[in-house]
Write a structure and sequence with these properties.
By secondary structure, this protein is an all-alpha fold. It has four helices and no strands.
């Protein structure tokens, strides 16, 4: 099933004071309140989905125990050992 990128209408109920505050924030940023809601939802999904898709969360791949042996793929000695003189 393909997921459409079209926007879907959503109805939410807010306390009036929060709604008015949100509208003022949108006006101060020269944006629509709906944009702020979408941004807030994107941020919530990113922070609570369990899998962050940022470079900060990436971990290096294991290269056959190189860490345990204290070797580093970037070191010239290891490159020469693995690739020979052709590198």
């Amino acid at each position: 099933m393909a997921i459409s990128l079209k926007k879907k209408p959503v109805t939410i109920y807010l306390q009036e004071l929060k709604y008015l505050t949100f509208q003022k924030m949108a006006k101060d940023q020269n944006r629509k309140a709906a944009e702020l809601v979408r941004d807030a939802m994107d941020e919530y999904i990113q922070n609570h989905s369990g899998s962050k898709k940022t470079f900060d969360s990436w971990e290096p791949l294991s290269l056959g125990g190189l860490k345990a042996e204290g070797k580093d793929w970037l070191s010239k000695d290891y490159q020469d050992q693995m690739l020979g003189s052709s590198f």
